[in-house]
């Protein structure tokens, strides 16, 4: 279309990156130009009408071609002048009509372009809000779970709450001015596990005062390397940021963690207001105040009963420790809060309310720091949509089973190895903590290929017993190779050491059902459960002798009573609206 004197006419420009927003550029591209061009073309056509025009519907003409309907616009019945005036009037009305059409098309194009442009700018604004960091600090070595039959994989996200006082707002909210400028601690650490089929979710907290082994971590901002150590888990954040916390969790659990999300005091307050707070309950009046024995405190002050906490009061609830008896009580209170937030968002249809989503997105992108893989609004939105359809009764939250720390039994804890390892195995195997299925009967096991003969299978045996601060059991791989050869696996041989918390038999993903059958035959021969068989990126069949099997020719049988991860552990179900916290007596009023 050529140039004209009307400002705004001509071919509209396309909106940059419109496809990222899911917009159809045809709405404001050539179609808009066509609309203008058609209107202009129609106007030109009406200006070249002949002296004689066809009769309109309902009209009749005499032999001269004049209409017999009645008086013309400027002359008598049937006069040529009258006909000309009528045609001229219609030409003027046609021109006005086409000008209106042309201006409507132009205005529509401008509005669409303007709206799309504003939408893109706002999208970029939200993206620019997001602070990102490396997923790992260099110590990530867990294996990603293989896809299920439908090609789905579980989703694991580490949620971290920082006690950083490195801003005026955080100092105001958290006190402890003397800590300003110091290394932050990860006082809240939760793993959100979403099943591969997105029909259940589990949240597991590790108390901040848990002693664990930490891998080497690299802090790229400080340009500092931290060696492996045995320390309290909340210190990991100061040894390489959130990536080091993720690496520490992977080392402890063997679970591949896809992403992390980090929030500080001010972020908690802002997000709490944006989502509308949470419904919580205390059985007695509570006042979490400083005492001679326990300085500090959250200053949470509530009467007994149900309350909706928002903003700073929500932060006080999430930080309360002494009044809830311990850090374990605090984790339980945090689970109650999280379940309530999810319930409220579902009840309010917030996931489909554009206005609410925009408000939450604005706040969340300013308040959260995320691993780089989550660093766009679209990815955060997609994550929310993955979670929105999980029924509340299929969401279970609990705190890791633990025992008093032998080095400091009054202040610190360590993982209860048997129960904690069983818990991590459930998550690695993508099994729901509630033991439920999706309501459908389990499919009958398919008859896959038979395992190859034992003497034809080459098996590499790896000594992985050197974990959790313990030295690897010397010669362990050689011992298990001898046990395998005694059972007919003549091609078994030792491989390089690779620390692992639990034993497993890995087979190459590309080998499919045959590889799985071969691996299961090895597991059965040594007494390993079938859950220990994993598809992996190994080149051949690999038996990893983990820290749970430090001696003996056969895998030690597990006592179900001592390894039940849900026994004597605080568990909160998402559908439980009646949960209520006990208040430790010294903090009642």
Helix content: 25-40%
By helix and strand content, what is the structural category? alpha/beta
Distance between the termini: 79 Å
Q: Which strand order does the major sheet show?
A: 1-14-9-2-3-4-15-23
CA-based shape: globular
Low-confidence stretches: 1-81
The biggest sheet, with number of strands, parallel, antiparallel or mixed sense and barrel status, is: 8 strands, mixed
- How large a portion of the residues is in β-strands, by DSSP E? 15-25%
Q: Radius of gyration, rounded?
A: 35 Å
Our count of helices gives 12
- Let me know the average pLDDT: 80
In total, how many beta strands? 23
Briefly summarize what is shown:
The chain has 589 residues and is α/β, with parallel strands linked by helices. The chain has helices spanning 30-46, 80-129, 168-174, 242-253, 265-275, 311-319, 327-347, 354-367, 377-387, 417-428, 476-486, 512-526, and strands at residues 131-133, 155-162, 186-194, 201-205, 211-214, 217-219, 224-226, 229-232, 259-263, 278-282, 286-287, 301-302, 305-309, 368-371, 395-399, 402-404, 413-415, 458-463, 491-494, 504-508, 533-536, 542-545, 571-573.
Tell me what the structure shows.
There is one protein chain. By secondary structure, the protein is of the alpha/beta class. The protein has twelve helices and 23 strands. It has helices spanning 30-46, 80-129, 168-174, 242-253, 265-275, 311-319, 327-347, 354-367, 377-387, 417-428, 476-486, 512-526; strands spanning 131-133, 155-162, 186-194, 201-205, 211-214, 217-219, 224-226, 229-232, 259-263, 278-282, 286-287, 301-302, 305-309, 368-371, 395-399, 402-404, 413-415, 458-463, 491-494, 504-508, 533-536, 542-545, 571-573. The strands form seven sheets. The protein has an eight-stranded mixed β-sheet, sandwiched between helices. A five-stranded mixed β-sheet has the order 19-18-22-20-21, covered by helices on one side. Strand 20 (504-508), helix 12 (512-526) and strand 21 (533-536) form a beta-alpha-beta unit.
């Amino acid at each position: 279309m050529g140039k004209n004197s009307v400002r705004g006419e001509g071919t509209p420009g396309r909106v940059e990156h419109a496809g990222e927003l899911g917009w159809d550029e045809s709405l404001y591209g050539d179609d808009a130009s066509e609309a203008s061009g058609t209107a202009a073309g129609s106007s030109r056509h009406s200006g070249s009408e002949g002296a004689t025009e066809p009769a309109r519907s309902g009209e009749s003409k005499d032999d001269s071609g004049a209409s017999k309907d009645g008086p013309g616009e400027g002359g008598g019945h049937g006069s040529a002048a009258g006909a000309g005036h009528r045609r001229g009037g219609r030409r003027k009305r046609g021109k006005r009509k086409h000008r209106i059409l042309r201006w409507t098309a132009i205005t529509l194009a401008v509005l669409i372009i303007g709206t799309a442009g504003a939408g893109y700018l706002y999208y970029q604004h939200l993206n620019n809000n997001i602070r990102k960091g490396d997923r790992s600090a260099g110590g990530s070595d867990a294996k990603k779970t293989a896809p299920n039959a439908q090609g789905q994989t579980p989703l694991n996200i580490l949620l971290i709450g920082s006690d950083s006082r490195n801003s005026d707002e955080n100092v105001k909210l958290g006190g402890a001015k003397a800590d300003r400028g110091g290394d932050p601690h990860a006082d809240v650490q939760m793993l959100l596990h979403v099943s591969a089929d997105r029909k259940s979710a589990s949240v597991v907290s590790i108390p901040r005062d848990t002693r664990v082994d930490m891998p080497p971590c690299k802090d790229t901002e400080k340009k500092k390397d931290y060696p492996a150590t045995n320390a309290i888990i909340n210190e990991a954040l100061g040894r390489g940021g959130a990536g080091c916390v993720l690496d520490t969790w992977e080392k402890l659990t063997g679970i591949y963690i896809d992403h992390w999300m980090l929030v500080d005091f001010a972020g908690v307050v802002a997000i709490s207001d944006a989502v509308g707070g949470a419904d919580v309950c205390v059985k007695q009046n509570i006042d979490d105040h400083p005492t001679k024995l326990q300085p500090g405190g959250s200053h949470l002050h509530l009467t007994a009963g149900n309350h909706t906490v928002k903003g700073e009061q929500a932060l006080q609830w999430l930080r309360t420790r002494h009044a809830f008896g311990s850090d374990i009580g605090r984790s339980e209170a945090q689970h109650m809060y999280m379940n309530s937030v999810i319930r409220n968002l579902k009840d309010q249809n917030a996931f489909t309310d554009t206005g609410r989503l925009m408000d939450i997105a604005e706040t969340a992108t300013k308040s959260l720091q995320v691993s780089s893989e989550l660093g766009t609004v679209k990815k955060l939105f997609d994550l929310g949509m993955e979670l929105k359809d999980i029924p509340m009764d299929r969401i279970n939250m609990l705190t890791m089973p633990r025992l008093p720390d032998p080095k400091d039994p009054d202040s610190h804890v360590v993982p209860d190895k048997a129960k904690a390892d069983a818990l991590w195995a459930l998550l690695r195997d993508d099994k729901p903590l509630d033991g439920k299925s999706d309501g459908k009967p389990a499919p009958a096991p398919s008859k896959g290929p038979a395992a190859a003969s034992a003497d034809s299978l080459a098996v590499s045996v790896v000594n992985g017993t050197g974990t959790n601060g313990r030295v690897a059991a010397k010669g362990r791989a050689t011992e298990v190779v001898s046990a395998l050869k005694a059972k007919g696996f003549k091609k078994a041989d030792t491989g390089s050491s690779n620390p692992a918390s639990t034993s497993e038999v890995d087979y190459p993903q590309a080998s499919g059902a045959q590889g799985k059958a071969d691996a299961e035959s090895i597991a059965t021969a040594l007494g390993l459960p079938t859950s220990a068989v994993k598809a992996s990126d190994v080149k051949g069949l690999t038996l990893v002798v983990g820290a749970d099997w430090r001696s003996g020719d056969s895998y030690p049988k597990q006592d179900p009573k001592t390894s039940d991860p849900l026994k004597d552990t605080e568990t909160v179900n998402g559908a439980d609206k009646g949960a209520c916290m006990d208040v430790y007596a010294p903090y009642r009023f």
